[in-house]
Design brief:
about 90 residues, alpha+beta, Ubiquitin-like (UB roll), five-stranded mixed β-sheet, two-stranded antiparallel sheet, about 30% strand, globular
């Protein structure tokens, strides 16, 4: 299966603007993020802290926030589009 990843802000510095990733059938957000962390140095510290996915990391799958879905256990399907960006802070 192929999943498209669009990265923004600090994530774009590590992953690039957009990339297609091959994943196995039945994989979820956690599987994908772990694979990306293994391939891209520095990504682990941007995404995770001791308690899991950092609170200031936003992930959308096909335009829907994963918090409205199954969180990091959200299963991915062929052709899904994942957007990865930090929370906007400031005013």
């Amino acid at each position: 299966m192929r999943v498209s990843i669009k990265a923004f802000a600090t994530f774009r510095n590590v992953l690039g603007k957009e990339r297609l990733v091959e994943i196995a059938e039945g994989e979820d957000i956690t599987d994908l993020l772990n694979a990306l962390c293994n391939s891209f140095g520095g990504l682990q510290d941007l995404l995770f802290d001791d308690s899991g996915l950092k609170d200031d990391v936003n992930i959308l799958v096909n335009g829907r926030n994963i918090q409205a879905l199954n969180g990091v256990q959200t299963k991915l399907a062929d052709g899904d589009e994942l957007a990865l960006f930090p929370a906007a802070i400031g005013g």
